[in-house]
Amino acid sequence: MADRPLTSGTETGAIRDLPSRGRVTCRGFIESVTIVPVQEAPAFSAIVTDVDKYDPTAGPAPAGATGRDRVRLIWLGRRRVPGIAAGTQLRFEGMVAERDGIATIFNPRYEIIARQEH
Fold first, then answer.
1. How many CB atoms lie within 10 A of CB 61?
2. CA distance 25 to 21
3. Is 2 within the bounds of a domain?
4. Range of the domain at 91
């Protein structure tokens, strides 16, 4: 939730270094979002990576990128999450678990990190 500050703890470095299970605090860039059809239960998900593919100065994704270089954030019961869009940088916290071959965090706490204008 964006209205409460994240707990002060050690922030994990790269997303690929996330453990298979446990509480994590990490940061990354939203690569894509998925909005489910109205007929399905409300859920909003976003794929987060270490590389900002919308920033031409960020460079390419690491060679051999796999599902471990990404984390899926899922907000259950919501069709939209304000401020969460492709290209947004955020810091997030939650319990990570493996789901469908990708690290997944349900209902993470998050903070949007503002970008400086050039």
1. 14
2. 12
3. no
4. 15-113
Domain count, the chain: 1
Residues 53-96: pLDDT tens digits?
655 555 555 544 445 689 999 999 999 999 999 999 999 999 99
**What CATH number is associated with residue 70?**
2.40.50.140
- Distance, in Å, from the CA atom of 81 to the CA atom of 1, rounded to the nearest integer, reads 10
- For the cut 90, the answer to whether the pLDDT of residue 7 exceeds it is no
Q: Which residues contact 22 (CB under 8 A, 6 or more apart)?
A: 95, 96
Q: Residue 7: inside a domain, yes or no? A: no
CA 36 – CA 65 distance, rounded (Å): 26
In contact, 36 and 13? CB cutoff 8 Å: no
Q: Which residue has the tokens 């916290």?
A: 93
| pLDDT at residue number 114 | 85
The CA distance from 49 to 37, in Å, is 25
Other C-beta atoms within 10 Å of 110: how many?
Answer: 24
Q: What are phi and psi of 16, to 5 degrees?
A: -65, -15
Side chain identity, residue 65: A
Say yes or no to pLDDT of 12 above 90.
no
